[in-house]
From TrEMBL:
Protein's recorded name: Aldehyde dehydrogenase
SUPFAM superfamilies in UniProt: ALDH-like (SSF53720)
Source taxonomy: Bacteria, Bacillati, Actinomycetota, Actinomycetes, Micrococcales
Organism of this sequence: Terrabacter carboxydivorans
Keywords: Oxidoreductase
Domain of life according to the entry: Bacteria
Chain ranges of the Aldehyde dehydrogenase domain: 23-447
Keyword Repeat among record annotations: no
InterPro entries given in the database record: Ald_DH/histidinol_DH, Ald_DH_C, Ald_DH_CS_CYS, Ald_DH_CS_GLU, Ald_DH_N, Aldehyde_DH_dom, Aldehyde_DH_NAD(P)
Keyword Oxidoreductase part of the UniProt annotation: yes
Location of the active site: E226
Pfam families for the chain: Aldedh
Length: 472
């Protein structure tokens, strides 16, 4: 059983350096040599990464199973295959995304030529969490490599098997001079954060996000924060409740609820909630059978500490279904609980992001009360609305703020490569996926050139005549 306390304190890097500081120096040397800039290098790295993921799928799936009890299918759909699709999309469009773009020049500056070019930033640090330890390490890396950067990757020590397999495979498949992996926990990450990077891409909780931001400020390094929080799901009275229940169960209990965009809690009117309850119970049984502990498709909690945190959230008197756990296997049954008063500080399930297989149900008066509840809290990473009404959809689009708004389906928006993925406010800063990733890991440089002859700048230089002033 993995524990959060595991800190391998190893420095496994792809480039033969030693301590994190040496790794960053090696990565910078590679970037400064210019090796990462040609498109051919970028394509070769992405293709090598694709080969690694496809050929070593089983090895990676075994590590994910060891860390999180993920089924091989879930591992492919949400991790390995997810990154493969991101690579394919990026390879298909890389030429267009990295091409210089002409910009119109005002007549007063003719015959000048203006364009914007995307240039790589330099050395990018990617710090990843444990819940999707392949996807969240490699998807940002795809963007960073596609944009021509050197990369230092810090996988999460809380998923140690996946961290080890990624370190080993990246070292053997990618350019070891420019792609580095530093394994380890807080001490290694702290040492990394003392170095100067050109961009830091952090995915994880907000408390560490603040540490990252403070460290980055010392070097004026730009930061992307992919954070979490409570993502609500509002079920309107007109929703198709049967499909809603099935999709909520899928969204909530994938990876045993350890998904940053999992529906954290459900809001609905009392009658809708009562109608939804038996459908949720049935959908759980449909997905995982009478005893989810025996389902190969149901994952485990990452560590004993997180299991204890989650079981403490479950008040047996409020359980609609589930609630059983087994500490020896880090198992927590898919659980639905009822909330009496969402604003009562004693309601522990409503205080913080649950990040596990516990789904609270909150009754509200109606649409206005639901929107008030949502907007009175931190801006969520995802907001879900289940409805057949365009008016309800429009209301949420206009009157709420969230990283993403998804209608009638959780999680799936991540798989639309053209949609930027990121939070707002407490759920994060910045976004990535597809072209947005290439943009994120590039500097958009303005280039302007004006021929010297004929010299057309006379009108802007002193001495100013009244005629000139009028032109200006
Ligand atoms: P975690 O414990 O694995 O931590 C994330 C990373 O931060 C790890 O690499 C870890 O080594 C590093 N870290 C931990 N403590 C540190 C410290 N004191 N100093 C420097 N680095 C440190 O993962 P987690 O934070 O428990 O991840 C879960 C959170 O991440 C949830 O809130 C979830 O919603 C969020 N999340 C967000 C996204 C997203 O894309 N927005 C995706 C997944 C998870």
């Amino acid at each position: 059983v993995p524990t959060d306390q595991v800190s391998p304190a190893r420095d496994r890097d792809g480039g033969g350096g030693g301590r994190p500081a040496d790794v960053v120096t090696a990565a910078r040397r590679a970037f400064d040599s210019g090796v990462t800039k040609p498109r051919a290098w970028r394509v070769a790295q992405l293709e090598a990464l694709r080969t690694l993921l496809v050929e070593r799928e089983e090895e990676i799936a075994a590590a994910l199973h060891e860390d999180l009890g993920k089924s091989a299918t879930e591992a492919w759909v949400t991790e390995t295959g997810f990154v493969v699709r991101e690579i394919d999309h990026t390879l298909r469009h890389l030429r267009a995304w990295t091409a210089a773009r002409r910009v119109r020049v005002p007549l007063s500056l003719a015959p000048g030529r203006a364009k914007v070019v995307r240039e790589p930033l330099g050395v990018v640090l990617v710090i990843a969490p444990w819940n999707y330890p392949v996807q969240l390490c490699l998807t940002p890396m795809v963007g960073a490599l596609a944009a021509g950067n050197a990369v230092v990757l810090k996988p999460s020590e809380v998923a140690p098997a996946t961290s080890a397999v990624l370190a080993r495979l990246l070292r053997s498949h990618l350019d070891r001079s420019a792609v580095h992996v530093v394994e380890g926990g807080v001490p290694e990450t702290t040492e990394l954060l003392a170095q100067r990077f050109d961009h830091i891409f952090y995915t994880g909780n907000g408390a560490v996000g603040r540490i990252v931001l403070e460290a980055a400020a010392r070097h004026l390094t730009p930061v992307t924060l992919e954070l979490g929080g409570k993502s609500p799901a509002y079920v309107a009275d007109d929703a198709d409740l049967e499909v809603t229940a099935q999709r909520l169960v899928w969204g909530k209990f994938t990876n045993a609820g350890q998904t940053c965009v999992a529906p954290d809690y459900v809001i609905a009117s009392r009658p809708t909630l009562e109608a939804l309850k038996p459908l949720l119970v049935a959908a759980i049984a449909d997905a995982f059978g009478a005893d989810p502990a025996t389902s190969p498709d149901y994952g485990r909690i990452v560590s004993r500490r997180h299991l204890d945190r989650l079981t403490a959230l479950v008040d047996p008197a409020r359980v609609v279904t589930g609630g059983r756990s087994d500490a020896s296997t880090c198992y927590l049954e898919p659980t639905v609980v009822e909330v009496r008063d969402a604003d009562d500080p004693a309601e522990s399930v409503m205080r913080e992001e649950i990040f596990g297989p516990v789904l609270p149900l909150v009754a509200v008066e109606g649409l206005d009360a639901a929107i008030e509840l949502i907007t009175s809290r931190d801006k969520p990473l995802a907001l879900y609305v289940f409805t057949r009404s365009d008016a309800v959809q429009r209301r949420f689009t206009r009157d709420t703020s969230s990283g993403a708004l998804a209608v009638n389906v959780p999680l799936a928006h991540l798989a639309v490569p053209g949609l930027p993925f990121g939070g707002v406010g407490a759920s994060g800063t910045g976004a990535y996926h597809g072209e947005r990733s290439v943009e994120l890991f590039s500097h958009t440089k303005s280039v302007f050139a004006l021929p010297t002859r004929p010299d057309t700048t006379g009108w802007v230089r002193p001495p100013f005549t009244s005629a000139k002033e009028r032109v200006i």
